[in-house]
Design brief:
Elements lengths: L1 H6 L1 H25 L17 H18 L3 H20 L6 H4 L2 H16 L6 H4 L2
């Protein structure tokens, strides 16, 4: 069983990269353009050039690059940092543990992107085709 799963590791990395990048980009679209039900109380986009707007820009561009496997390590490193900042500035003041303060997604994204930043996009990333 271990040998079979080891042979499929590339598939797990591909799925994690594409799904996490796509979902992260969707968060950016939600904030920046009010897509998928919007972000603010009115369901619209956030104010241009605000801190939340820059977060949305990182999420949209970074998530897209990660999902496609283009400059994966750099994009994932930046996205990892954004999620760390989001956790410690927005969630952590509300409580000690992520389950208490609503920061589970920020922590998960942070560590997924840390993994991708240190391991790259894998076998089926677009950056592999350029080499």
């Amino acid at each position: 069983m271990d040998a079979m799963l080891a042979r499929l590791a590339w598939l797990g990395l591909l799925a994690m990269r594409v799904v996490s990048g796509f979902l992260f980009a969707c968060h950016g679209l939600q904030k920046m353009f009010g897509a998928f039900g919007g972000f603010g109380p009115s369901g619209g986009a956030v104010a241009t050039f605000s801190q939340l707007w820059f977060a949305a820009l990182i999420e949209l561009i970074g998530g897209t690059l990660i999902a496609l496997g283009v400059r994966t390590q750099i994009a994932a490193f930046i996205c990892c940092g954004e999620m760390a900042v989001a956790y410690f500035t927005v969630h952590q003041p509300r409580g000690v543990l992520p389950i208490q303060n609503g920061g589970e997604f920020a922590v998960l994204y942070c560590f997924i992107f840390l993994y991708l930043a240190t391991n790259g996009g894998g076998k089926f990333s677009l950056e592999r085709g350029a080499r």
